[in-house]
Amino acid sequence: MGEASRDRTITIYDIAEEAGVSPATVSRVLTGNAHVRREKRERVQELIARYHFVPNALAKGLSETSTKTLGVIAADVRNPFYASVFMACEQAAERLGYTVGLFNSLGKIENEEEQLERFRRQKADAIILLGGRVDDLVTNTVFAGHVRKICRSTPVVVTGKLDRTPCYSVRIDASAAMRQLMDHLFLHGHERIALVGGRLDVTSTYEKYQTYSSMLNARGIRESGDLVVSGGYDYQSGYEGMNRLFEQPVRPTAVVAINDFAATGILRSIFEHGLSVPADISVVSFDNTFLSELSIPKLTTTDYDYDYFGRMIAETAIAAAEGRNPAPETRIETTLIVRESSGSAPVL
Amino acid sequence: MGEASRDRTITIYDIAEEAGVSPATVSRVLTGNAHVRREKRERVQELIARYHFVPNALAKGLSETSTKTLGVIAADVRNPFYASVFMACEQAAERLGYTVGLFNSLGKIENEEEQLERFRRQKADAIILLGGRVDDLVTNTVFAGHVRKICRSTPVVVTGKLDRTPCYSVRIDASAAMRQLMDHLFLHGHERIALVGGRLDVTSTYEKYQTYSSMLNARGIRESGDLVVSGGYDYQSGYEGMNRLFEQPVRPTAVVAINDFAATGILRSIFEHGLSVPADISVVSFDNTFLSELSIPKLTTTDYDYDYFGRMIAETAIAAAEGRNPAPETRIETTLIVRESSGSAPVL
DNA sequence: CTCTAAGATGAAATCGGTTTCACAAATCAA
DNA sequence: TTGATTTGTGAAACCGATTTCATCTTAGAG
């Protein structure tokens, strides 16, 4: 119903006065790290309960030097992959008594830098960078420089890799994932394999391309530049990328999408060209988000243990914040999940 | 790279000392709400820049009484609808100089109550409740009671409706949305219309059911309880709900899904039964998330102006926090978007 | 050339906790 | 019974900003 006059906030001083003890004693009851005579302790606890008192986290954070808060910067939570990772991360942090602030950078460097500052101001105990231009190789010098500055005051965890920057990395083994997909396709007789979506200046994407390329070479398959269409990471990118492939004289028998999101666009493009998956073209992708379950046909994709992924991110961040020394680099394993979108290469 | 020894944080006292002025003067330069002799001001600014100094937000929040922070509790950001709303809300808040903390309650009341406490402790200027069991009619007494308590100290904005609770409401006009879908279906000759997904104890869902029911009655169509299958709000719920409908002797010619997410499950079920959409069955849903664009066929659904929705939520929360008196209730309009999943009723 | 209002600035109080320090009281060992 | 611990407690300092208050300049009006 709108406005209500707010209650006056009560403090430990109020509690102390009414309980007839000093504020210090109330604080001792609160933190529990000192002895308080039972009788007084119970009196104080009774008052805390009665007045529904909660200690002011700002004051607490100011005197201790921890806020029990993590700052997360994601490119875009609407992307199911980030949503899943964030979710897992947030739940893990919550179990460890930490709250998280979330900011969507939309992949814009200025936004990320500004938010980095803001988290620093807010005394976040650690900052987590999910994707975005974090692992950008080209702008490495620009952005990494900024991150490097932040690292000097606050621990930073990234899901990519920043060279010459003292931050922690928890990342998926993109090469291994690509290897699993390619092996799967080779096994089904595919040789004309396309790769759609992703920017080469993002480390994970770069690693995927590297692996794709070297595996084709290893099998003596001539790599055709025409089969590689880079772009973004969403539906639109997949859709446009696949349309581009259809403009070429010979079409691929299989397409590796940079992620599930792009794969859905690829499926749409193939559908609109009157072809069917996997009979005419196989489509495989990365991430095993809920999209791979709900698209028709269901997608063959690579899965990660999201709970573990999120937990490692949160635990690394928190361990660093608390001065314990977490592993500087953690790799997340990947598993191939075969569904309906991939099958034997058609005989052309 | 891992651990690095952290820089000592510098404060206005450090700046003050080096500039040869008092901390008060540095503060005045920072806030800009008092005159400082140009010469000194520039000296201070120079030092602030040189040391890359940012004022401690905790200290600031403690002395002023605003933290420029909003707390958001969502059921699950992996749900594209919440992701979109959150995103819009966060961007709007950011433009107004506010940061947001996000917590996923997974729809569990205990989680919501606990987080409500935590935001109160952290002195969030306002708390925003996106969905979840917020607008729960049945447990109203339990949960609303808790919200009511929080409202006494912090403004609360909900996207549902809580009776007898002094909080602000910014919500979608669910009845209007349902009306648009039903009119669309009636226009195409549908009469045997099913409704799948959603819990009746959530206000928006309740409103949808009410409207569905009264519109059928108004047209003199006998309402069949068999055509209403409640459940959850995700893919699985839609899938199972639709399977349930298929167990019945006569199948509907059209299905209204409680949201896009559930609609994708419905599409899958229909697909598995060897039928096609919209030739055999029309499927329509709510929310126009990116799912409605990427599913095959694309979904006919109701759209809202997400930016506006998010902006109203953020602005209402902030206005309330700053003591201005925002409208207690804001309704968001809906628009019908006709895509591929709906068509004329088949002649049976 | 006064007189007054505005500008400039530091000292000190405040926000709401935690923690050190000092001292008193209770417990324990010898 | 006495000295050595351990327990219990309040006063006061501290965390890092903002802001009031008082004082001192300086500028502008008449």
Offer a quick outline of the entry.
The first copy, chain A, is α/β, with parallel strands linked by helices. Chain A is 45% helix and 15% strand.
- Based on the coordinates given, report the CATH architecture of the largest domain in chain A: 3-Layer(aba) Sandwich
Strand content of chain A: 5-15%
User: Strand order of the main beta sheet of chain A, please?
Assistant: 2-1-3-4-5-11
- Text of the CATH class of the largest domain in chain A: Alpha Beta
In DSSP terms (H or I, runs of 4 or more residues), the helix count of chain A works out at: 13
> Would you count the extended β strands of chain A for me?
12
Helix content of chain A: 40-55%
Average pLDDT level of chain A: 92
Uncertain stretches of 5 or more adjacent residues of chain A:
none
One letter per element, helices H and strands E, the order of chain A comes to HHHHEHEHEHEEHEHEHEHEHEHEE
What is the domain tally of chain A?
Answer: 3
The end-to-end span of chain A amounts to 68 Å
Largest interface: A-B, 68 and 68 residues
Q: Could you describe the largest sheet of chain A, including whether it forms a barrel?
A: 6 strands, parallel
CATH superfamily of the largest domain in chain A: Response regulator
CATH topology heading of the largest domain in chain A: Rossmann fold
